[in-house]
């Protein structure tokens, strides 16, 4: 099977109807794509993996099933092992090695994209003027977006070898062009 963004979107939307989950997929895709471009990697492959990483979460919202049972579906559908393994690697509880740049980048963007999204939702201009400093400040407030695992945000930046501020800036920059699709206020709106 040829791995394309379009195919990944088709699979994702077949299993996922929740707007919040679709937005999460798009936000993570934006971050992962940014790094694919930066590193000269296969953008189509990286985007597909990012879109698919939580594709089964709606039907398997518990860690005894997500993403393991989703992986079985991806295999059945003919997704190559490179895609399936990368999807599986994002899950902390599986403790799989993050031994490729794609796996490291997916992990680094997953929680942070969610957190940046949350920051944007409470700002009058979304993520338009969001700076790393204010993201860091919010990270230190446990009550804000409490579902986001802070340790994974910090570990992610370290895993891709970036200062947290730079990683935040990259992810915010990557998400800005799709702010409208993410339900965030934009300068134009
Ligand atoms: Fe997940
Ligand atoms: Fe995720």
Provide an overview of this structure.
This protein is mainly α and 189 residues long. It has nine helices and no strands. It has helices at 5-15, 19-39, 43-52, 68-76, 81-89, 101-121, 132-139, 150-159, 164-175. The longest helix has 21 residues, at 19-39. The protein is globular and about 45 Å long. It binds fe (ii) ion (FE2) (2 copies). Residues 53-54, 57, 66-67, 90-91 line the site of one fe (ii) ion (FE2). Residues 53-54, 57, 66-67, 90-91 line the site of one fe (ii) ion.
Instruction: Tell me roughly what share of residues is in helical segments.
Output: 55-70%
Rg of Cα set: 16 Å
Quaternary structure of the protein? single chain
Q: Count the helices. How many?
A: 9
Cofactors, ions, other ligands: fe (ii) ion
The ordered string of helix (H) and strand (E) elements is HHHHHHHHH
* Mean pLDDT value: 97
Instruction: Give start-end ranges of low-pLDDT stretches.
Output: none
End-to-end separation in angstroms reads 40 Å
What would you say about this model in short?
Helix content is 59%, strand content 0%.
Name the descriptors:
mainly alpha, binds fe (ii) ion
How would you summarize the topology of this molecule?
Blueprint: H1 5-15, H2 19-39, H3 43-52, H4 68-76, H5 81-89, H6 101-121, H7 132-139, H8 150-159, H9 164-175
Bound molecules: fe (ii) ion (2 copies).
């Amino acid at each position: 099977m040829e791995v394309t963004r379009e195919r990944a979107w088709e699979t994702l939307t077949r299993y996922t109807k929740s707007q919040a989950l679709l937005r999460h997929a798009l936000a993570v895709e934006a971050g992962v794509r940014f790094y694919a471009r930066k590193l000269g990697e296969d953008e189509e492959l990286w985007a597909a993996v990012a879109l698919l990483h939580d594709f089964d979460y709606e039907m398997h919202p518990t860690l005894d099933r997500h993403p393991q049972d989703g992986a079985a579906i991806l295999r059945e559908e003919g997704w190559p092992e490179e895609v399936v393994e990368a999807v599986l690697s994002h899950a902390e509880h599986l403790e799989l090695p993050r031994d490729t740049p794609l796996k490291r980048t997916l992990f680094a963007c997953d929680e942070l994209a969610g957190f940046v999204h949350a920051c944007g939702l409470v700002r009058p201009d979304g993520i338009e003027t969001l700076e790393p400093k204010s993201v860091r400040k919010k990270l230190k407030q446990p009550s804000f977006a409490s579902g986001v695992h802070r340790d994974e945000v910090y570990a992610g930046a370290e895993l891709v070898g970036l200062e947290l501020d730079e990683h935040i800036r990259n992810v915010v920059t990557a998400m800005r062009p799709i702010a409208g699709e993410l339900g965030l206020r934009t300068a134009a709106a």
